[in-house]
Amino acid sequence: MVKLPAPQLIISLGALILGGCQLLPQTRQLRISAASSLRTVLQTLEPEFEKAYPQVDLTFNFAASGVLQRQIEQGAPVDVFFSAAPQPINRLLEQQLITQDSHRSVVTNQLALIVPEQSQMSLTGFQQLTSPQVKKIMVGERASVPAGQYAQEVFAKLDLSQQLQAKLIFANNVRGVLAAVASANVDAGIVYATDVRQSDRVKQVALAPAQSHSPIVYPIAIVAASSQPQTAQSFIDFLSTPEAQDRFTQAGFGLVSKD
Questions:
Q1: 82, 35 in Cβ contact below 8 A?
Q2: What is the pTM of this model?
Q3: Selection from 113, 115, 111 nearest residue 180 by Cα
Q4: How far are the Cα atoms of 50, 108, 218 from residue 83, in angstroms, in the given order?
């Protein structure tokens, strides 16, 4: 057996180690910015996607869609944006910060009026929010929370805006509304129908009539600055698989027609 000099042996071992490392698949981190109301279903889908794509590690950033829009405008590292309303993505499209041909709608939702589980008020509709018994109503902040924007549309359509103005308290996302109602810190709140399933300390008393607000549609798109658009597209395509669509419907979301 030929003996290598010590320095050459070290170099040879180093080359073997580096060569072995190069054979191992490198994990790519895919950064998803998504609306707060998508948290539970996307976290449920995460292991299923990573099982199908073992070289990809999903990283989520959940917040109000308007907040996520501003983060992307300010250069935050994001690969995919999953919004709770079309407007934030449309604004990014206007600035060429979204890849045009990646834009698609995925699911729909409904707007729900909720009260604390132990509430003794007999609310059955949005019009009853004008009752003197109802003193505090929490909704999403209009400038950045789509659920808050939809709520304001409902108030305007039902001619309730002026009467409810002094009662409104604003949260920076729908999960904040849900938490406030669940803890009975407010008398009522407006969230998405899917959010109601996240707490057994609230009860839904009404759904907003569909014609009282803009359609609640969740679009998704690849951020133009993404360094891995193909991997990002794989995630978007995964959300259209039967398995992922089943998860969305189980969570209470509606599916967008492919027609």
A1: yes
A2: 0.87
A3: 115
A4: 22, 11, 6
Q: Which of 52, 49, 48, 56 is nearest to 30 (CA)?
A: 56
Beta bridge partners of 59: 31
Separation CA 194–CA 251 (nearest Å): 6
Angle at 213 between CA 209 and CA 214, to 5 degrees: 130
Mean pLDDT in the chain? Answer: 91
Helix 65-73 to helix 86-94 angle, to the nearest 10 degrees?
10
* Beta-bridge partner residues of 119: none
Helix axes 39-52, 229-238, angle to 10 degrees: 110
Rounded CA separation 257/245 (Å):
12
Per-residue pLDDT tens digits for 182-209:
999 999 999 999 999 999 999 999 999 9
Amino acid at 167: K
- Angle formed at CA 226 by CA 224 and CA 229, multiple of 5 degrees: 90
The per-residue pLDDT for range 32-48, each reduced to its tens digit, is: 999 999 999 999 999 99
Do 70 and 97 touch, CB atoms closer than 8 A?
no
